[in-house]
Amino acid sequence: VWAWLERRILSTGFECPLDSGTMHLARPGVIDPYTGESFAIWSCDHCGFGQTVPRPDDIGRYYAPDYHGDRHGASGGLANRRRLGFVSKTVGPADGRRLVDIGCGNGSFMEAARQRDWEVAGTELNALDARARGLRVESTIDQLEDFAPVDVATLWHSLEHIPDPPSMIRSVRSNLKPDGVIIIAVPNFASLQSRMTGSNWLHLDVPRHLNHFTKSSITVLLGAERFEIVRSWNLEFEYDIVGWSQSLLTPLTQGRTIFFDVLTHRAERFTRSVRLANLASGIALSAFIAPIVPFTTLAGSAATLIVAAQLRP
Ligand SMILES: [Zn+2]
Fold first, then answer.
1. How far is ligand 1, taken at its centre, from the CA of residue 225, in Å?
2. Rounded to whole angstroms, how far apart are CA atoms 26 and 36?
3. What percent of the chain has pLDDT over 90?
4. What Cα–Cα distance (Å) separates residue 266 from each residue in 34, 37, 205, 209?
5. Per residue in 227-271, pLDDT tens?
6. What spacing in Å lies between the alpha carbon of 27 and ligand 1's midpoint?
7. What burial class does residue 231 get, using C-beta atoms within 10 Å of its C-beta: 0-12 exposed, 13-18 middle, 19+ buried?
8. What is the distance between the alpha carbons of residues 260 and 266, in angstroms, rounded to a whole number?
9. Interval between CA 32 and ligand 1 midpoint (Å)
10. What spacing in Å lies between the alpha carbon of 211 and ligand 1's midpoint?
11. For the stretch 164-185, what's the b/e string if a residue is b when 16 or more beta carbons lie within 10 angstroms of its beta carbon?
12. Residue pLDDT, tens place only, 78-127
């Protein structure tokens, strides 16, 4: 009853930051697996865009020093090769052209791109790891003025962390060549996995994820700056499988994401037996779920959404 009342009271709504739709309470009681704090996600009844509520003023506090950890675990090299594949399928080989990676994390994608003859630069608030690889990394894209205009801008799972996506897309546009390409990967808020696991969905990752995108809300966001989606994909296999198995395990571990933390080497705070139990359950569930993942991909409803967009002439 309380949940219903809360929903009635809170469902008066506010205007969507992307279009004229109205934001309604969509997912109450979303737990941050690291602090145990509770958040909600409101989403637009028109474009499906979601926002985390409330928005912490001190977001830095929610990024533990090991947050970026080894985000892709053992599959890091695979992820970078696949991402370079998305780039080359869209724009062809590098030929010394310029690529900026926004929210470049530890810089491993930039390094892989540099090896494929891209001239690279990146942005990241916590740039120490990437700079240690000898890469040029600034806090914001506007500090890369002398590197612009670029041929390609990539945002691999960074747009969901950025406080103001419309202004980020505007900055990208003003630093991109007229025939340049922007490539964005985000968790798919409208995916089957997201809808079925509700507030327990692994890739909600509140409050670090301030924004939650669907294909239509990305289309609206990009369209406002004259970008048109030219290609899209919806698979990052490990995100999908681990997304399913962890999201199903989360309710059993009081909102914590121990299986995922073990895979990404961030589970030191749990005892060995807890780690082993979660690893075993996670692997068993993953094996059970793996066969259905290709079907969600074919249905365009996988857990990751990747789009490439160009400016309309
Ligand atoms: Zn909207």
1. 15
2. 20
3. 64
4. 11, 19, 15, 18
5. 999 999 876 677 788 888 888 888 888 888 888 888 888 888 889
6. 16
7. middle
8. 8
9. 25
10. 12
11. ebeebbebbbebbeeebbbbbb
12. 889 999 999 999 999 999 999 999 999 999 999 999 999 999 999 998 88
Can you give the C-alpha Rg of the chain in angstroms? 19
Ligand 1 centre distance from Cα of residue 275 (Å): 40
CB-based burial label for 236 (10 Å; 0-12, 13-18, 19+): buried
Cα(235) to ligand 1 centroid in Å equals 24
The CA–CA distances, whole Å, from 72 to 10, 105, 130, 275, 289 equal 37, 12, 16, 18, 19
Tokens describing residue 180: 């340049």
Per-residue pLDDT at 18 exceeds 90: yes
The number of helix segments (H) and strand segments (E) in the chain equals 11, 12
What is the pTM (predicted TM-score) of this model?
0.87
How many Å apart are CA 299 and CA 294, to the nearest integer? 9
Cα→Cα distances 303→83, 191, 269, 299, Å: 16, 5, 28, 11
pLDDT, one tens digit per residue, over 174-227 is 999 999 999 999 999 999 889 999 999 999 999 999 999 999 999 999 999 999
Rounded to the nearest angstrom, the distance between the alpha carbon of 264 and the centre of ligand 1 is: 33
Q: How many angstroms separate the alpha carbon of residue 214 from the centre of ligand 1?
A: 10
Ligand 1 midpoint to CA 24 (Å): 11
Residue 241 alpha carbon to ligand 1 centre in Å: 29
Report the separation in Å between the CA atom of 143 and the middle of ligand 1, taken as the mean of its atom positions. 30
